Amino acid sequence: MDKENVVKVEIFDPPMCCPAGICGPTIDPVLLDIQEALLKIQKQFDGAASVERYLLSQQPARFMQNPEILALLKKEGTGILPITAVEGEVMKTKSYPTFQELDQWVAARRANHDQL
Amino acid sequence: MTSSRFLFFSGKGGVGKTSMAASTAVQEAEGGRKTLIVTTDPASNLADVFETEIGHRIALIPGVPNLWAMEIDPDQATTEYKEKILGPMRAVFPADVISVVEEQFNSPCTTEIAAFDRFVKFMDDPEYDLVIFDTAPTGHTIRLLELPVNWSEFIDLSAKGSGQTCLGPVQAIQESKAMYDKAIAELRNPRATTFIFVVQPEAVAIGETERSVAEIRQLGVKSIELIINAILPEEVCQDAFFRARWEMQQRHLQEIERRLVMPARRMFLLEEEIKGVEKLRRTGQMLLEGETSTPRGDHEHVSA
Amino acid sequence: MNMFQPEKILLPSNGYSRVLFFAGKGGVGKTTVSSVVALRLAECGYRTLLVTTDPAAHIGEVFEQPVTDEIQPVIGVKNLFAVRIDPKAATEEYKKSILEDARPRYSAEMLAALAEELESPCTEEIAAFDKFSQFLTDETFQVTVFDTAPTGHTLRLLQLPFDYSKQVSLMVATGQESVGLKDKTKARFEAMISKLRDPARTTFGFVVYPESTPIVEAHRAKLDLEKAGIPTQFVVANQVLPVERCSHPFFKKRSEMQKRYLAQIVEKFDVPMLEMPLFEQEVIGLPRLRQAARTVLSDCGCRGVN
User: Cβ distance C213 to C203 under 8 Å?
Assistant: First the structure.
């Protein structure tokens, strides 16, 4: 698989105890669901989709490097999180995407790549 | 005395770890070694024993050249660790974002990591000839010391897996991993590290010390010694009540000899608390005289 | 002068169950004091649970019978049960229950990722805390006695409901189910906090021996607890030398030192003080525990209720 052809999905997570949010005093099923959806999407596209998750407390640089994310955070505060970006473009804010949404977005980008 | 660079005092709470560690520190420092005594106990009483302010910084102990001390304050260590991350963020993010992230650090992980980080740093510091750790009581100590072993495995595991751990991105941890590995290697090297268990001749303490020694051995620590503290001097036990306690201690001393086979030193109960440099100096001297070289050496009474 | 009135601080009142905490520096005799008090209350007829939160617990040695991470009756004492929080076992149990809940809903890959995430060092703290909260809120015992780990460790454990409650407030609840969970969890922590702060339901006692360092340490912890809204209700002074035995100058000197410190305890803590003497033999095994219990708490305040 050509590296340029990999579709990059980024999740800018809300503050959580640890990266997947499943080591806190209570485990939020929403966090399990998104983890599952992300695993599934990687499997579905078999290396053609990559997923990165960022935490404000641990990878603040990622939030600062992306001007769109930084602007959103400055304007709306942490309530805007989680943010999902595909190929750097913000697709969804305030809640996690479903598997269907992710599938649609990644498939659309793949189609674009193929046309080029 | 000792040639180790790191001494860990361990044992059940209240057996006199801090007094023994502090006496040893005074003894070694006055013998010419540049010595640092550190406590990782969140409820430390090091300052009380030295009768001087210490706190969360390296402080020179007045009246003892070559001796420094520090009480690692877990809250302060956490704050320092937090600021490493928060500092650069302050310039960019609005205050409410910063405060949310800051609150986030009140996670169980952060305190544990931060305190541990401080502790490992001292093992990597060439500044001192001798670093004495007046460690936290047994159960807690074992947890603390088990961490590096578990953590290395945990870091390896995570690097292979999702690449994410409780400790932050793998990239950042890889740097610390080398430091953790080095700390473990030092703990296991009998030329570098000696564990000194302090025990009193009483049933419960013996059982607990035996278990802790086994756990520490299992972690791969090879150099382990014993100080038997608070032994009643026979000559003061004329009253039947104390005579009975003296006899009980004698039985337990035999038990210790049988169950805790390692180089051991004996220390008598003193008529006063061990506080202040002068008493620490005398106690250090007594400890030195109470030295027995072989694990099964004769245990004749060493008079105080 | 603060009188030690056992009925006010040791016994259940107003239909509530009573939680007793014995805290203090390592080695001051927390386990012995907790065991003695628990035994006495059980003998008075109260259904009593003795819980040890010390990872290096030796409660089994004191009772001369195994105490495990399952609640079990203490053989030979009616109404008395004992359990220890074993962080390792609690962690395994916690991991297992989370994985089992997740199993029907998620893929094998997801479960593997979850299992890996649960290997984190904080899982152990959360798991031990979970057990602690379970015993703290258990209403099937009339009295629950906590033999706690040395001070620092205990303060940390008691800080957790406060920390967790704050953390839960920060949870970004993104779904209906999450909102419900968030509220439920928050309610659970808040219930724990209010129980810990209510002197009619929870009693905090520090154990010290009459020497400088245990007093300094316990007093510092007392102030920390006050900041969290948890009042200290009494102090147990343990290992007090029997004056009549201290004729030799060596012990006379130690006994006088103790006397000074006992006065200091009364003045510094400003709460009732219970004295527990040094016994001729170690307090191990039921006969000696019983004897100690009757010496220290001849009147347990139960007025022959049972």
Answer: no
**Of C102, B182, B5, C250, nearest in space to A27 by CA:** C102
Report the chain C residue with the minimal C-alpha distance to residue B233.
Answer: C250
* Spatial distance between the Cα atoms of C154 and C54, rounded to a whole number of angstroms: 9
Chain C positions touching A23 (Cβ under 8 A) are: 117-118, 120, 122-123, 126
Tokens standing for C233? Answer: 């209700």
* A64 part of contact set with chain C, CB < 8 Å: no
| Strand-pair partners of A54 | A12
According to the model, what pLDDT value does residue C170 have?
A: 59
Residues in chain C: 306
Burial of C29 (0-12, 13-18, 19+ CB in 10 A): buried
C-alpha angle B78/C182/C164, rounded to 5°?
25
Which residues of chain B are at the A interface, by a Cβ-Cβ cutoff of 8 Å?
85, 88-89, 92-94, 96-97, 100-101, 103-105, 107-109, 162, 164-166, 168-169, 172
pTM, entire model: 0.79
The SS3 call for residue B63 is coil
Task: Looking at the complex, report in whole angstroms how far the Cα of residue C164 sits from the nearest Cα belonging to chain A.
Answer: 6
Strand partners, A83: A12
User: For chain C, what is the mean pLDDT?
Assistant: 86
**Selection from C26, C103, C17 nearest residue C57 by Cα:** C26
Q: Which two tokens stand for residue B113?
A: 């990591």
Is cis: bond before C210, omega within 30 of 0? no
Decide: helix, strand or coil at residue B198: strand
CA distances from C101 to A27, A38, C88, C177 (A): 11, 20, 20, 15
Contact residues on chain C for B166, CB-CB shorter than 8 A: 117, 120-122
* Tens digit of each residue's pLDDT (9 = 90 or more) over B42-86: 667 888 899 999 988 999 999 999 999 999 887 787 788 778 777
Closest residue of A to B169, CA-based?
Answer: A58
- Chain B residue with minimal CA distance to C253? B271
Tokens read off for B196: 């000194």
Choose from B150-154, C151-155, C243-247 the range with maximum mean pLDDT.
C243-247
pLDDT in tens, B192-237: 999 999 999 988 888 888 988 988 888 788 999 999 999 999 999 9
Q: 3-state DSSP call for residue A97?
A: coil
